[in-house]
Design goal:
single chain; alpha/beta; TIM Barrel; 8-stranded parallel β-sheet; 13 helices; 8 strands; schiff base; Dihydrodipicolinate synthase family protein
Length: 321
C-alpha cells in the first residue's frame, strides 16, 4: 500500500511469539496482529528489536514477516526491519522483504565495525536504490556504536533517500534539535523535507515528542497496551495535552513490568522482552512466553509480578497472583 507522507500514529514493533522449541508460533503471531489492529494502531513494524530480529534465523525472519503481512491484509502499512551488519546482508533481507509484501523498510547504519558518515550515507542510498521501497533509518546507538549524525539525516531526508527516522537513541534533546533543523513544529511541512516522518522509540516520553512535532511512536509496550498508546496519540493530536499526559503517566507506570527480571540473573533485554511476552500470554494473546536464546527466561515469581502489574493497570480484570 502507499504510505502516507508523513507516516503517523502508533506503529508498534511487533513481538515475535516463539513456541517451546524456539520456532515462530505463527498462530500466536496472527492473533497478536489482530490484537494490535483491533486497538486502532496506524501501522506495524515487524522484525525490529522488540521482534527479536537479531536472534532469528533468516528463515524465521521470513516466516514472521509473511505472517504479519498476511494477517494485516493491507489494512495498515507494514514496515519490515532489514537490520544486519553490512550493506550486502541488508540488501539480501530487503529484497526478500519486498517480495513478501512489506510496504517499507527499516535499516540501521552498518555495524560490527565503526563506519564513517560517508559510508553510512552510501549504505542507505544503495538500499533505497536497489529495492525502491520507502526506507526508514533506525537510530539505535547502543546497537551500532554511534548515533546517526543529524546533518546526515537532514541530507538524506532532503534528497529523498530516507522517508523517515525511528529515533531510539533516548536522546530527546537531539530529537528536538533535529525537528527544529527540519523546520520546527509549526513549519516542518514546508521545510527542506516536508514529507519526512519522525517517529520516537522512547515510549515514556511520547507526549513530549508529539508536542515537539514528532509524527508518531514505535512503542515496545504497545504490544501489551496498544489502545493506551492510541488514546495518547489521539489526545495529543486533538490538542488535549493534559489528557495525553495522564495517559502517558499511566503507561510509564505499566512500563515497570520491564524491570521484573532480577538484575543478578539476566540482562535488561531478557527482562523487558520476557515481560512483554509474559504479559501477552497472560492476556490470552499468545500461547507461550518463550524468548530467543541465549536470553534468560523469566521465573515464575517474575511472571506473577507481571500479572499483578497488569491488574493494577486495569488490563486484567480479576486479581492476579
Amino acid at each position: 500500500m502507499a504510505l502516507p507522507a508523513p507516516l503517523h500514529g502508533v506503529i508498534p514493533p511487533v513481538c515475535t511469539p516463539l513456541d517451546a522449541r524456539g520456532e515462530v508460533d505463527t498462530s500466536s503471531l496472527a492473533r497478536l496482529v489482530t490484537h494490535l489492529l483491533d486497538a486502532g494502531v496506524h501501522g506495524l513494524f515487524a522484525l525490529g528489536s522488540t521482534g527479536e530480529a537479531a536472534y532469528l534465523t533468516d528463515a524465521q525472519r521470513g516466516t514472521a514477516l509473511e505472517v504479519v503481512v498476511k494477517a494485516v491484509n493491507g489494512r495498515v502499512p507494514v514496515l519490515a526491519g532489514v537490520i544486519d551488519t553490512t550493506t550486502a546482508r541488508v540488501l539480501d533481507h530487503a529484497g526478500k522483504a519486498a517480495g513478501l509484501g512489506a510496504d517499507a523498510l527499516v535499516a540501521t547504519a552498518p555495524f560490527y565495525t565503526r563506519t564513517h558518515p560517508r559510508e553510512i550515507a552510501d549504505h542507505f542510498r544503495r538500499i533505497r536504490t536497489a529495492v525502491g521501497l520507502p526506507l526508514f533509518a533506525y537510530d539505535i546507538p547502543m546497537a551500532v556504536h554511534g548515533k546517526l549524525p543529524p546533518a546526515l539525516v537532514r541530507e538524506l531526508a532532503a534528497d529523498g533517500t530516507l522517508a523517515g527516522l525511528k529515533d531510539s537513541s533516548g536522546d530527546d534533546g537531539a530529537l528536538r534539535r533535529l525537528l527544529v533543523g527540519l523546520g520546527g513544529r509549526t513549519a516542518r511541512r514546508t521545510g527542506p523535507a516536508p514529507g519526512f516522518t519522525l517517529l520516537t522509540g522512547s515510549e515514556l516520553t511520547v507526549d513530549a515528542a508529539l508536542l515537539a512535532g514528532a509524527d508518531g511512536v514505535v512503542p515496545g509496550l504497545g504490544n501489551v497496551d496498544p489502545a493506551g498508546y492510541v488514546r495518547l496519540y489521539d489526545a495529543a493530536r486533538a490538542g488535549h495535552w493534559e489528557r495525553a499526559a495522564a495517559e502517558q503517566e499511566r503507561l510509564v507506570t505499566l512500563f515497570s513490568i520491564t524491570d521484573v527480571g532480577p538484575e543478578s540473573e539476566m540482562g535488561r533485554s531478557s527482562s523487558a522482552l520476557g515481560a512483554f511476552k509474559a504479559a501477552l500470554r497472560l492476556l490470552g494473546v499468545i500461547e507461550c512466553g518463550t524468548t530467543a536464546i541465549p536470553q534468560v527466561p523469566l521465573g515464575e515469581e517474575s511472571v506473577r509480578e507481571v500479572g499483578r502489574r497488569l491488574t493494577a493497570a486495569g488490563l486484567i480484570k480479576l486479581p492476579y497472583g
